Amino acid sequence: MFFMSLKYDLHSHSTASDGSWCPEELVKMAGRQQVDVLALTDHDTTAGITEAMQAAASQGLKFIPGVEISVSWRKQTVHIVGLNIDPSCKLLQQGLEKLRGFRDWRAEEIGRKLEKSGVNNALEGARAYAKGSLITRTHFAHYLVEKGLAKDVRDVFKKFLIRNKPGHVAGQWADLDQAVGWIRSAGGQAVIAHPARYRMTSTKLKKLISDFVECGGECIEVVSSSHSRDERHIMAGFARTYGLHASCGSDYHGPENPWVHLGKFADFPEGCTPVWESERWKAPTEISVLR
Ligand code: AMP
Ligand code: MN
Ligand code: MN
Ligand code: MN
Is 3.40.50.1950 the CATH number for 8-96+176-237+244-290? Predict the structure, then answer.
C-alpha cells in the first residue's frame, strides 16, 4: 500500500488582516495548490475564520482555526501563532481587541509621522487598502507603492517603516506570557512564528525559546518561506533541544510576494516531530460560537 502524505500549510493570511485574498478565495487557492490542511493565521484577529471554515468544508479541505499574535519581547516584536484555537474564547478575544486598539492608535501615529516627512494622506490611503479590517503596516506600504514612493512593499518597509525610518513607531504589543496564555485558554497550541526572521543572536533566540517554553508554548516553525535551508536545520535542532513540536507554513499573503506559494515549501529536516502528531491535534477543535 502506498500512502501519500498530506500537505499542510499552517500559516496564512487573508483580507481579515494584511492578506490580499478574502478567506474564501484563499481556501479555494489552497485547494488548487493541493493543500490538504490549511490554517488561517491572521494578525491579531479571528474575523476570517468563519468564512474560511465554511469554504473549506464545501471543498473537503481540513481547516485549522488559527491566529498570529503580535508580541513585544525585550523591546522586539515577535509573532506567536496559535493553532486549533476556539475563536469564541473570551480571554483571547479581549486580548486581541486590545492589540487592535494599539493598531488604531499606531496607524494615526504613523500617518502623522509620514505627513511630517512629506507623505500626504497616508492614513486615509492605508485605511482604504484595509477596507474596514484591522490596519497593518502592509496597508501603508500598498498606499506608498501606489503613490510611487517606493518600488514595492519591501522597499516601503526599508525606506519608511522600520526602525530609524520616518514612519516607524515602536510596537507595544502583548507580553509573551499573555499571548501564550490567550492561545492556551482558547484550547490552542502556541507556535513561535518564523524564528529566523528576528535576526537574533543564537543566545538571544535560545532565551526567547526558553521563555516561551516556560509560558507553556509547545511548537516552533521550522519550515517557513522566510527560512533558508540552514535556518531550517538550526530550528529543527532547537525543536529537539527544547522538546518542541515542529510546524510549517508559507506565511502566504498574496501575489505581491510571487516567490511565496500556498503549501509549497521544503520538508522538515530529519528528526522533527510535526505538530499534527501531538495529542492536542487528535481532538478536533469544536467551535461553539462563530464570530
Ligand atoms: P504590522 O503587524 O502592522 O506591524 O505589520 C507587519 C507585517 O508587515 C508582517 O506581517 C509582514 O506581512 C509585513 N512586513 C514586515 N516587514 C516587512 C518587510 N521588510 N517587507 C515586506 N513586508 C514586511
Ligand atoms: Mn503580515
Ligand atoms: Mn509574522
Ligand atoms: Mn504571518
Answer: no
